[in-house]
Amino acid sequence: MEAKEPVKGENIITSYYPNGEKESEGQFKDGMMVGLWATWYENGQMKRTSLYKDNNPDGKQSLFDDKGDLLSEKVHIDGVETTALDVKASKSQ
After folding, report:
1. What's the Cα-to-Cα distance from 69 to each of 45, 60, 63, 79, rounded to whole Å?
2. Cα angle value 84/71/11 (rounded, 5°)
3. Beta-carbon neighbour count of residue 7 at 10 Å?
4. Any residues with CB less than 8 A from the CB of 12 and at least 6 apart, and which?
5. Strand ranges (DSSP E) for the chain?
């Protein structure tokens, strides 16, 4: 998600599906994505959580299936992926 215009200060941005369920939520600070960003499936289940710093992934990112089960986790430092774990594959082994 990108801001169409520079955003001054700190703003929480939330978008919704037509059915009223939350689609995404995150924070902009001075036009940059910062902090925790989350997206949901239309059924209300968590889809992804990601931490951002200055518009780049920075920290843990978790991806879930549409039932809410954890699929994978990644760790980024300043936008560069450092670690990835396919949780679903490791559970089936």
Report:
1. 9, 16, 9, 25
2. 80
3. 15
4. 25, 26, 27
5. 10-16, 22-29, 32-40, 46-53, 56-64, 70-77, 80-86
Taking the C-alpha atoms of residue 64 and residue 67, their distance in angstroms, rounded to an integer, is 8
Q: Are 33 and 55 contacting, i.e. CB atoms less than 8 angstroms apart?
A: yes
The whole-model pTM stands at 0.77
Taking only the tens place, the pLDDT of each residue in 26-81 is 999 988 999 999 999 999 999 999 999 999 999 999 999 999 999 999 999 988 88
Cα–Cα distances (Å) from 49 to 8, 58, 92, in that order, read 24, 12, 23
Partners of 36 in the β-ladder? 51
Count other Cβ atoms within 10 Å, centred on residue 61: 19
Beta bridge partners, 74, equal 61, 84
pLDDT single digits (tens) 5-33: 544 667 999 999 999 999 999 999 988 99
